[in-house]
Amino acid sequence: MKHLINGTRLNILEQGSGPLTLIFLHYFGGSAREWQSVMNLLSDRYRCLAVDLRGFGDSDAPADGYSVGTMAEDITCVVQQLGIEKFVLVGHSMSGKVALLVATEQTNRIELANLQALVLLSPSPPVPEPIPDDERQKLLKGYGQRTSAEQTLKNITAKPISDMACEQIIADDLRSAKPAWEAWLKSGSRENISDRMPAVRVPVSILVGSDDQALPPNVQSELVLPYVPHATVDIVPETGHLLPWEAPDVVAAFISKKIAA
To answer: What fold, for 2-260?
Structure first.
Protein backbone atom coordinates (compact mmCIF):
# COMPACT_ATOMS: atom_id res chain seq x y z
CA MET A 1 0.00 0.00 0.00
CA LYS A 2 1.23 3.49 -0.83
CA HIS A 3 1.27 6.26 1.77
CA LEU A 4 2.02 9.94 1.19
CA ILE A 5 5.13 10.38 3.32
CA ASN A 6 7.18 13.58 3.48
CA GLY A 7 5.74 14.67 0.13
CA THR A 8 6.42 11.37 -1.67
CA ARG A 9 4.24 8.28 -2.01
CA LEU A 10 6.12 5.40 -0.44
CA ASN A 11 5.09 1.79 -0.86
CA ILE A 12 4.93 -0.13 2.44
CA LEU A 13 4.34 -3.85 2.88
CA GLU A 14 2.68 -4.82 6.15
CA GLN A 15 1.87 -8.05 7.90
CA GLY A 16 1.45 -9.39 11.41
CA SER A 17 0.65 -7.67 14.67
CA GLY A 18 2.07 -7.23 18.12
CA PRO A 19 3.14 -4.61 20.66
CA LEU A 20 6.51 -4.16 18.91
CA THR A 21 6.83 -3.03 15.29
CA LEU A 22 9.75 -4.02 13.09
CA ILE A 23 10.49 -1.54 10.28
CA PHE A 24 12.55 -3.13 7.51
CA LEU A 25 14.64 -1.06 5.08
CA HIS A 26 16.34 -2.43 1.98
CA TYR A 27 19.73 -2.29 0.25
CA PHE A 28 20.77 -0.10 -2.70
CA GLY A 29 19.01 -1.34 -5.82
CA GLY A 30 16.65 -3.52 -3.79
CA SER A 31 13.12 -3.25 -2.51
CA ALA A 32 10.90 -4.16 0.43
CA ARG A 33 10.36 -7.57 -1.16
CA GLU A 34 13.77 -8.74 0.03
CA TRP A 35 12.20 -8.97 3.50
CA GLN A 36 9.20 -11.14 2.63
CA SER A 37 10.64 -14.46 3.86
CA VAL A 38 11.98 -12.84 7.03
CA MET A 39 8.61 -11.22 7.75
CA ASN A 40 6.87 -14.55 7.22
CA LEU A 41 8.98 -15.94 10.06
CA LEU A 42 8.37 -13.03 12.43
CA SER A 43 4.85 -11.76 11.76
CA ASP A 44 3.26 -14.16 14.24
CA ARG A 45 4.88 -12.11 17.03
CA TYR A 46 5.52 -8.66 15.61
CA ARG A 47 3.95 -6.05 13.40
CA CYS A 48 6.22 -6.01 10.35
CA LEU A 49 6.52 -3.09 7.94
CA ALA A 50 8.88 -3.11 4.95
CA VAL A 51 9.40 0.22 3.20
CA ASP A 52 10.38 0.87 -0.41
CA LEU A 53 12.67 3.87 -0.05
CA ARG A 54 12.01 6.78 -2.41
CA GLY A 55 13.08 5.93 -5.94
CA PHE A 56 13.14 2.18 -5.33
CA GLY A 57 10.65 -0.66 -5.59
CA ASP A 58 7.09 0.58 -6.01
CA SER A 59 7.64 3.95 -4.33
CA ASP A 60 7.49 7.19 -6.29
CA ALA A 61 10.68 8.72 -7.61
CA PRO A 62 10.95 12.49 -7.32
CA ALA A 63 13.59 14.24 -9.40
CA ASP A 64 15.69 14.96 -6.30
CA GLY A 65 15.73 14.52 -2.53
CA TYR A 66 17.91 11.43 -2.15
CA SER A 67 20.30 12.50 0.58
CA VAL A 68 20.74 10.26 3.60
CA GLY A 69 19.06 12.98 5.64
CA THR A 70 15.97 13.08 3.42
CA MET A 71 15.61 9.29 3.49
CA ALA A 72 15.99 9.36 7.28
CA GLU A 73 13.27 12.02 7.49
CA ASP A 74 11.02 9.79 5.36
CA ILE A 75 11.35 7.01 7.93
CA THR A 76 10.70 9.37 10.82
CA CYS A 77 7.52 10.49 9.03
CA VAL A 78 6.50 6.84 8.49
CA VAL A 79 6.71 6.33 12.26
CA GLN A 80 4.65 9.45 12.91
CA GLN A 81 1.96 8.98 10.26
CA LEU A 82 1.38 5.28 10.86
CA GLY A 83 1.06 5.79 14.59
CA ILE A 84 3.95 3.47 15.42
CA GLU A 85 4.90 3.32 19.09
CA LYS A 86 7.55 0.81 20.23
CA PHE A 87 9.68 -0.12 17.23
CA VAL A 88 12.98 -1.52 15.98
CA LEU A 89 14.66 -0.38 12.77
CA VAL A 90 16.17 -3.13 10.63
CA GLY A 91 18.43 -1.66 7.95
CA HIS A 92 20.40 -3.38 5.20
CA SER A 93 23.45 -1.94 3.47
CA MET A 94 22.50 1.55 2.16
CA SER A 95 19.61 1.80 4.61
CA GLY A 96 21.86 0.84 7.50
CA LYS A 97 23.36 4.30 7.16
CA VAL A 98 19.85 5.75 7.00
CA ALA A 99 18.83 3.88 10.16
CA LEU A 100 21.88 5.13 12.03
CA LEU A 101 20.98 8.72 11.15
CA VAL A 102 17.36 8.20 12.24
CA ALA A 103 18.61 6.97 15.62
CA THR A 104 20.64 10.15 16.18
CA GLU A 105 17.39 12.13 16.32
CA GLN A 106 15.76 10.05 19.06
CA THR A 107 16.16 12.66 21.78
CA ASN A 108 15.07 15.49 19.46
CA ARG A 109 11.95 13.97 17.87
CA ILE A 110 9.06 12.78 20.02
CA GLU A 111 7.96 10.28 17.35
CA LEU A 112 11.30 8.49 17.77
CA ALA A 113 11.18 8.29 21.57
CA ASN A 114 10.15 4.63 21.52
CA LEU A 115 12.89 3.40 19.20
CA GLN A 116 14.16 0.28 20.98
CA ALA A 117 17.11 -0.89 18.90
CA LEU A 118 18.84 -1.02 15.54
CA VAL A 119 19.51 -4.31 13.77
CA LEU A 120 21.78 -3.70 10.79
CA LEU A 121 22.77 -6.13 8.06
CA SER A 122 26.09 -5.24 6.39
CA PRO A 123 25.42 -1.53 6.94
CA SER A 124 26.99 1.19 4.89
CA PRO A 125 29.31 2.95 7.37
CA PRO A 126 28.75 6.44 8.79
CA VAL A 127 31.88 7.57 6.94
CA PRO A 128 32.13 7.46 3.12
CA GLU A 129 31.50 3.94 1.84
CA PRO A 130 34.64 2.38 0.34
CA ILE A 131 33.34 1.74 -3.18
CA PRO A 132 36.30 1.46 -5.58
CA ASP A 133 36.18 4.13 -8.28
CA ASP A 134 36.09 1.59 -11.10
CA GLU A 135 33.17 -0.24 -9.48
CA ARG A 136 31.32 3.04 -8.93
CA GLN A 137 31.72 3.93 -12.61
CA LYS A 138 30.72 0.44 -13.70
CA LEU A 139 27.49 0.69 -11.68
CA LEU A 140 26.73 4.15 -13.07
CA LYS A 141 27.28 3.06 -16.66
CA GLY A 142 25.39 -0.20 -16.18
CA TYR A 143 22.22 1.42 -14.90
CA GLY A 144 19.11 -0.18 -16.38
CA GLN A 145 21.00 -2.95 -18.17
CA ARG A 146 20.04 -6.53 -17.44
CA THR A 147 23.55 -7.85 -18.00
CA SER A 148 24.84 -5.43 -15.38
CA ALA A 149 22.08 -6.42 -12.94
CA GLU A 150 22.89 -10.09 -13.45
CA GLN A 151 26.58 -9.47 -12.78
CA THR A 152 25.76 -7.50 -9.64
CA LEU A 153 23.62 -10.38 -8.39
CA LYS A 154 26.51 -12.77 -8.98
CA ASN A 155 28.93 -10.46 -7.18
CA ILE A 156 26.85 -9.92 -4.04
CA THR A 157 25.60 -13.44 -3.31
CA ALA A 158 27.53 -16.45 -2.06
CA LYS A 159 24.76 -18.98 -1.43
CA PRO A 160 22.48 -20.47 -4.10
CA ILE A 161 19.03 -18.89 -4.20
CA SER A 162 15.94 -19.83 -6.19
CA ASP A 163 15.33 -18.75 -9.77
CA MET A 164 12.30 -16.82 -8.56
CA ALA A 165 14.41 -14.90 -6.04
CA CYS A 166 17.05 -14.19 -8.69
CA GLU A 167 14.42 -12.73 -11.02
CA GLN A 168 13.04 -10.53 -8.23
CA ILE A 169 16.49 -9.22 -7.35
CA ILE A 170 17.21 -8.42 -11.00
CA ALA A 171 13.78 -6.81 -11.43
CA ASP A 172 14.33 -4.63 -8.36
CA ASP A 173 17.70 -3.52 -9.72
CA LEU A 174 16.20 -2.62 -13.10
CA ARG A 175 13.21 -0.72 -11.70
CA SER A 176 15.35 1.53 -9.48
CA ALA A 177 14.82 5.13 -10.58
CA LYS A 178 17.82 6.78 -12.22
CA PRO A 179 17.85 9.83 -9.88
CA ALA A 180 17.95 7.54 -6.83
CA TRP A 181 20.56 5.28 -8.40
CA GLU A 182 22.91 8.11 -9.33
CA ALA A 183 22.38 10.04 -6.10
CA TRP A 184 23.51 7.15 -3.91
CA LEU A 185 26.57 6.36 -6.03
CA LYS A 186 27.64 9.97 -6.52
CA SER A 187 26.79 11.49 -3.15
CA GLY A 188 24.79 9.45 -0.61
CA SER A 189 27.38 6.70 -0.24
CA ARG A 190 30.03 9.40 0.18
CA GLU A 191 28.23 11.27 2.96
CA ASN A 192 30.01 11.48 6.30
CA ILE A 193 27.64 11.40 9.27
CA SER A 194 30.21 10.12 11.76
CA ASP A 195 30.02 13.26 13.89
CA ARG A 196 26.39 12.39 14.65
CA MET A 197 27.09 8.89 15.95
CA PRO A 198 27.58 9.81 19.65
CA ALA A 199 23.83 10.52 19.68
CA VAL A 200 23.01 6.85 18.91
CA ARG A 201 21.96 5.55 22.35
CA VAL A 202 20.02 2.40 21.50
CA PRO A 203 21.58 -1.08 21.17
CA VAL A 204 23.06 -1.68 17.70
CA SER A 205 23.42 -5.28 16.48
CA ILE A 206 25.22 -5.92 13.19
CA LEU A 207 25.09 -9.08 11.08
CA VAL A 208 27.38 -9.58 8.08
CA GLY A 209 28.12 -12.45 5.71
CA SER A 210 31.66 -13.84 5.86
CA ASP A 211 31.81 -13.82 2.04
CA ASP A 212 30.24 -10.39 1.55
CA GLN A 213 32.13 -8.79 -1.36
CA ALA A 214 30.25 -5.47 -1.23
CA LEU A 215 30.76 -4.60 2.45
CA PRO A 216 33.08 -7.25 3.93
CA PRO A 217 33.30 -7.86 7.70
CA ASN A 218 36.40 -5.66 7.99
CA VAL A 219 34.31 -2.64 6.94
CA GLN A 220 32.32 -3.04 10.14
CA SER A 221 35.39 -3.32 12.37
CA GLU A 222 37.29 -0.51 10.65
CA LEU A 223 34.60 1.97 9.59
CA VAL A 224 31.59 1.37 11.85
CA LEU A 225 32.76 0.25 15.30
CA PRO A 226 35.16 3.19 15.79
CA TYR A 227 32.13 5.51 15.57
CA VAL A 228 29.50 3.23 17.15
CA PRO A 229 31.64 1.46 19.78
CA HIS A 230 28.72 -0.12 21.64
CA ALA A 231 27.62 -2.01 18.52
CA THR A 232 28.10 -5.77 18.30
CA VAL A 233 29.06 -7.67 15.13
CA ASP A 234 28.12 -11.26 14.28
CA ILE A 235 29.25 -13.08 11.13
CA VAL A 236 27.26 -15.62 9.10
CA PRO A 237 29.59 -18.19 7.52
CA GLU A 238 29.62 -18.79 3.76
CA THR A 239 27.07 -16.05 3.07
CA GLY A 240 27.25 -12.95 0.89
CA HIS A 241 25.73 -9.48 0.96
CA LEU A 242 22.07 -10.38 0.43
CA LEU A 243 21.45 -11.97 3.81
CA PRO A 244 17.62 -11.73 3.73
CA TRP A 245 17.58 -13.62 0.42
CA GLU A 246 20.41 -16.04 1.19
CA ALA A 247 19.68 -16.90 4.83
CA PRO A 248 16.25 -15.60 5.91
CA ASP A 249 15.97 -18.11 8.76
CA VAL A 250 19.31 -16.97 10.19
CA VAL A 251 18.31 -13.32 9.87
CA ALA A 252 14.93 -13.88 11.55
CA ALA A 253 16.54 -15.79 14.42
CA PHE A 254 19.16 -13.05 14.84
CA ILE A 255 16.51 -10.34 14.99
CA SER A 256 14.44 -12.30 17.52
CA LYS A 257 17.45 -12.91 19.71
CA LYS A 258 18.68 -9.34 19.66
CA ILE A 259 15.36 -7.63 20.34
CA ALA A 260 14.56 -10.05 23.15
CA ALA A 261 17.86 -9.32 24.92
So the answer is: Rossmann fold (3.40.50)
